């Protein structure tokens, strides 16, 4: 018998005690952990079912139907929406800037659907609109930072019945208002994107005209007044261009003319 075998034989009772007192409990622990791990997916699913059945408590988890309703729909129509940023006051220019930035962002989104599309003049106009609106967004963000360094970083709006002179009465602009400003409820199909863009941009520009006229009434800031004037001049011109493009395709709806009363300064 070798020396190694001799030592093992001599320590036999000791090894038995080690196996009994240490290894067997460890094996039982390992089996228990395995069982727990196997049950975890079932527990998680049960918890998910429990939360799904109690939407009235805590955070609401969006269902597939909710997500579908909030996603842009493929459509050729554009709904008009209110564009007012509230009454005059010391916070009006901030509210106007935030609203117009979101509104301009909608023009960027819409224009990108027809970049380099090949349709006569449409792609070129979309690029021109994108450049113009992006330049104004950049300028407005710079003014906001300089004029309102203590304002929240998120876009704001006046709370219902709020004081238009009080920063404390400004609230985060709702996602619904932002979506309406950006006209993001619809998106085009490949087949209707030219008409979708042309008609949608008339609606978009009509909203900008409304906001610009409101700013000319409510603001006393010369920079904002100059921007509002520039918006009226540029976007009435583009509405006429958009209308001519639609007419060239045999379309001439009364809706194309509903903002003509906002063309004058």
List keywords for this structure.
265 residues; mainly alpha; 2 domains; two-stranded parallel sheet; two-stranded antiparallel sheet; 4 strands; disordered N terminus
Model description:
The radius of gyration is 32 Å and the shape is elongated. With 265 residues, the chain is mainly α. It has 2 domains: 47 residues; 185 residues, Ferritin, CATH 1.20.1260. It is 62% helix and 4% strand.
Number of domain modules = 2
**CA distance, first residue to last residue:** 112 Å
Q: What share of the residues lie within helices?
A: 55-70%
Based on CA atoms alone, the radius of gyration comes out at 32 Å
Task: Enter the CATH topology name of the largest domain.
Answer: Ferritin
**Which series of helices and strands comes N to C?**
HHHEHHEEHEHH
Give start-end ranges of low-pLDDT stretches: 1-73
From the coordinates shown, what is the CATH architecture of the largest domain? Up-down Bundle
Number of strands: 4
Morphology call: elongated
Largest β-sheet summary? 2 strands, parallel
Number of helices: 8
Which strand order do you get reading across the main beta sheet?
1-4
Q: State which percent range the strand residues make up.
A: under 5%
What average pLDDT do the residues reach? Answer: 78
| CATH superfamily descriptor of the largest domain | Ferritin, core subunit, four-helix bundle
């Amino acid at each position: 018998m070798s020396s190694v075998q001799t030592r093992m034989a001599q320590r036999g009772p000791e090894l038995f005690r080690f196996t009994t007192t240490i290894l067997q409990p460890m094996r039982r622990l390992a089996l228990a952990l395995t069982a727990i791990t196997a049950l975890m997916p079932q527990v998680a699913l049960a918890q998910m079912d429990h939360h799904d059945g109690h939407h009235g408590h805590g955070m609401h988890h969006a269902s597939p139907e909710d997500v579908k309703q909030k996603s842009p729909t493929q459509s050729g129509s554009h709904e008009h929406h209110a564009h007012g940023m509230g009454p005059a006051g010391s916070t009006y220019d901030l509210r106007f800037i935030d609203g117009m930035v979101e509104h301009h962002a909608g023009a960027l989104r819409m224009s990108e659907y027809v970049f380099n599309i090949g349709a006569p003049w449409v792609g070129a106009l979309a690029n021109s609109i994108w450049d113009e609106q992006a330049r104004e967004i950049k300028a407005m963000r710079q003014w906001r930072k300089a004029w309102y360094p203590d304002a929240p970083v998120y876009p704001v709006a006046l709370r219902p019945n709020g004081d238009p002179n009080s920063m404390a009465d400004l609230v985060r602009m709702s996602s619904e208002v932002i979506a309406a400003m950006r006209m993001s409820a619809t998106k085009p199909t490949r087949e209707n994107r030219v008409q979708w863009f042309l008609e949608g941009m008339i609606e978009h520009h009509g909203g900008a005209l409304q906001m610009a006229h409101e700013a000319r009434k409510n603001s006393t800031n010369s920079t904002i007044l100059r921007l509002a004037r520039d918006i009226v001049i540029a976007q009435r011109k583009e509405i006429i261009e958009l209308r001519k493009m639609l007419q060239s395709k045999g379309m001439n709806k009364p809706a194309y003319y509903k903002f003509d009363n906002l063309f004058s300064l």
